[in-house]
């Protein structure tokens, strides 16, 4: 049985009979038009539709692992008023009872058509999606990233304080002297990344096994699998091809083999994002010198594509020290602040807030 809900809301010119439900193929382009109106007015809706079709073949999204949820007019379902997406993900969870993998979702692209804002449609949308998550969706947990966290708190999502580093003023030509005294690194080939992800996941599980958890605590991480990591690669590669005329395959990371440390990155609309920073489990948060050398690889990639900024979510103290190091040697500017948008929010099934949550690996790879 389809999960749906009908109601009446007060519209700009009188009552509107609306219906909530999972998006149909006939609503696909209308959904993309709302996305464009909300997030990328200069980007054609047909390109967004093409991107969604491209991503629909990714392992993370196959077999209804990605779903559109829409509010539309009851008598004209092609008129989409509001929408969001849910994208499947796997969580590693540890509480006082056990360590286990759980299934859940990330909510993304919450958007309301400009003509129908301030009518309570976003509230209705999120309330119904939460019911689906708790019921047929069978989601142990769900996450979203937002600049209006207070709005989602009402429906059970807990805001998790987060920081971001912005690296700007990237020089047109990074000099060889910028790497003086730093460990050598190399770019990663795309075919190397799945095996590295397997090692990363194994490290995470080993770390969780050693973590002591109190009776009122729960630790959780989005598992950094190849499916999770590569989804943003594919998302960004499509954008880079459409907006910048690039040709795949693109470079997505770099490695310092001597230190067994690597980073991944992906391309965005206006910046290059460090998706994940992996350091060996017995090396703490890693060497600032190693991390600085790897960040220089990312800066060179950003410069090659004329991105004005590189962003890093939730940098460790060592990563902040590495950015300070390259700011002195390469002349870049670094600012680390509380995240003003894309604030991580997490909701347990049925809005359960009985345990204190600790989120691990709060990095860009886990966003959608």
TrEMBL record:
SUPFAM superfamilies: Acyl-CoA N-acyltransferases (Nat). One of its GO terms (molecular function) is acyltransferase activity, transferring groups other than amino-acyl groups. Residues 18-173 form the N-acetyltransferase domain. Transmembrane segments: none annotated. This is N-acetyltransferase domain-containing protein.
């Amino acid at each position: 049985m389809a999960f749906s809900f009908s109601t009446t809301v007060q519209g700009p010119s009188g009552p509107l009979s609306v219906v909530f439900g999972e998006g149909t193929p006939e609503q696909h382009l209308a959904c993309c038009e709302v996305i464009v109106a909300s997030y990328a007015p200069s980007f054609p809706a047909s390109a967004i539709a093409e991107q969604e079709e491209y991503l629909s073949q990714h392992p993370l999204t196959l077999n209804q692992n990605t779903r559109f949820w829409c509010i539309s007019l009851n008598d004209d379902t092609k008129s989409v008023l509001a929408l969001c997406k849910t994208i499947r993900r796997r969580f590693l969870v540890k509480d006082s009872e056990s360590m286990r993998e759980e299934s859940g979702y990330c909510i993304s692209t919450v958007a309301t058509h400009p003509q129908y804002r301030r009518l309570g449609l976003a509230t209705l949308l999120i309330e119904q999606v939460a019911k689906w998550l708790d019921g047929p969706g069978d989601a142990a947990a769900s996450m979203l990233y937002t600049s209006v966290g207070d709005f989602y708190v009402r429906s059970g999502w807990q805001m998790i304080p987060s920081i971001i580093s912005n690296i700007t003023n990237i020089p047109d030509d990074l000099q060889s002297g910028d790497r003086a005294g730093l460990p050598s690194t190399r770019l990663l080939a795309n075919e190397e990344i799945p095996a590295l992800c397997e090692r990363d996941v194994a490290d995470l599980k080993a770390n969780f096994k050693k973590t002591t958890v109190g009776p009122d605590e729960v630790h959780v991480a989005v598992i950094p699998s190849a499916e999770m990591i590569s989804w943003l690669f594919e998302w960004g590669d499509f954008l880079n091809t459409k907006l910048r005329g690039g040709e795949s395959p693109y470079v997505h990371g770099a490695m310092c083999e001597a230190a067994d440390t690597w980073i991944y990155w992906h391309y965005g609309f206006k910046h290059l994002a460090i998706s994940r920073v992996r350091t060996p489990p017995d090396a703490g948060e890693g060497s600032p010198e190693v991390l600085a050398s790897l960040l220089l690889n990312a800066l060179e990639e950003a410069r090659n594509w004329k991105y004005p900024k590189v962003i890093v979510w939730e940098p460790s103290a060592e990563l902040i020290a590495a950015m300070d190091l390259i700011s002195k040697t390469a002349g870049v500017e670094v600012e680390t602040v509380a995240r003003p948008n894309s604030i991580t929010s997490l909701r347990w099934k049925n809005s359960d807030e009985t345990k204190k949550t600790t989120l691990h690996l709060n990095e860009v790879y886990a966003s959608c």
